Amino acid sequence: MSNPRPRRSSSLLERAAEVYDFSAHVRAGSPLAAPPAPEPVAPPVPAPVAPVAMPEPPVEDGPVLLNIPEEFRASAADSAFLASEYAPVFSDVATIDRAMLAENGMIVPGAPVGPLAEEFRLVKRQLFVTRERLLAAGETDKARSVLVCSSRPRDGKTFCAINLALSVAAERDTEVLLVDADFAKPDVLARLGLPEGPGLLDALDDARIDVESLVVRTDVPHLSVLSAGTKTASDTELLGSARTRAVLGRLLEANPRRLIIFDSPPALAASPASVLAMLVGQVMLIVRADRTPETELAAAVNLLDGCEHIQLVLNSVAFVSGSQRFGSYYGQEGAR
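The chain above was modelled as a monomer; its predicted structure follows.
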């Protein structure tokens, strides 16, 4: 006699069938009815709890200084440390690559103040002095625009434009818009680790585009950027049109505290620089200490004479041992 087959345990579906009549909805020709809802039960009333006095948070004497180590290299995930009472409230802000700034020897927002930051503090103060003079003369719009240019390529104009914008962004009462106006070789957004997109040329070419909608707000408080836009062979002609003044007026009107900084092409290499010089209140002309000939500098100044206020900035000055510049003060003898 064979052994009886062991009894198989009921499956989940079989156990459920013992509770619910699955065939009922087939006979009735209707969907499966949900089981009746249980009777509501009143929740128990919790016993009263005595309030607990919480200690008052300590009051700081002033703003908290974030001590960022020198080897700090920020990423998109690390940028939260920069949140402060001055941080933008926009949800669509772009994250600037701090590691890229540091690797390229630029000012890193939030990092300890070094010789480069101090140099640009002096530069922007001179620009602010000229701005006040323009305001006193009634040239309100021109007082809020600066052109950063050079006589020839590779003199460091984009390097200086970005550092100037980062320095101005540290001001409490000023917003800064950095515009990439080097239409042939735009490089501003790439150096900040941001993607290119529609920009100034698109707004100049199409009157239906609101240029303010193309402004990219960043996670650096008070700093926004505007890309060069779609390349065109008629960039100089677009800049010379009446549309340009309307576009610049819109950018200034959108934010009364805004200072616009243009990074233009070299004056001796492309014509847009001379056109932009007629639209701004002052020009910051970058002169590379080891390679800019005096004849080229003079030629660049002549091309930019549409602007009355041209200031020279000497770039790439070699450090002299024993000098009392900012490198020795901050304990960075290798500073440039």
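Residues 115-136 form the longest helix (22 residues).
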